[in-house]
Please model this.
Amino acid sequence: MKTTDAVAVDSKNTVQSLAKGFRVLQAFTAHEPELTMAEIARRADMDNATAFRFLNTLVNLGYVDKVDNSRLFRLSLKVLDLGFHAIARADLRTHARPILRGLVGEINEAASIGVLDGSSVMYAERVQAGLTQLGVEVRIGSRVPAYSTAVGQALLAWLPRETQLKVLGGQPMVRLTPTTITDIDTLVARLDEIRELGYALSNQETVSGLYVLAAPVLDIDGTPVAALSVAAPAHRGSLEQFQHNALDAVLQAARQLSKSLQATGGYAAQGLGR
Model:
């Protein structure tokens, strides 16, 4: 008797080449993330020539990487995009959406939830009422450098030092605005201060003209699974005024989301220092 998968592959409505491409991707595992072409061909149940064509296609599309100075292949971070887009249906977004809506109004023009993906922050949910005048267009799945964002710093501050350094060293630190911090020692000291304060405050460090305040969303063990933030244009007032207006609401919202996720067990930390 055929398995469900086999029946699906044999169906006249199935695109065989697409099914084979996914078999190539599924050949990689957490225990064996790097494989040779022959190993992939054997696991995907295809000949070497066919595996070679599929691998070249996937490399060209950016879903598979060649390992330097070897005959090995591995999945690229682009594959993670597919998985992270599923967050749109996950508990994190489901619980976060109404909380973010409550944070957007006259003071804050946007509220977001971000998760750490390697050395970047990926936005898992976003509610935005303005900021178009600043050219800020952030969507679910958008990525920004972790080192330069309040969201990224709020996540990093609650991680072990070793992980912090790994993430900070994972990409070149480019000065995005005049206030962007690009020195690792200065950033590490900043993370210690953020941990003590309980929140991160950004003075136009990623986008000129934009204030951002963020707080971590913690699991039951105190590990950050996400960070919640609000943003407002700087021309409305001083950084101190923005902080005064936004801080209590952001801290309360982050605690509420943390408790909600802890109660349901609906989300686990992902992508930390990958």
The beta strands are 34-36, 64-66, 72-75, 110-117, 120-128, 143-145, 200-203, 210-218, 224-233.
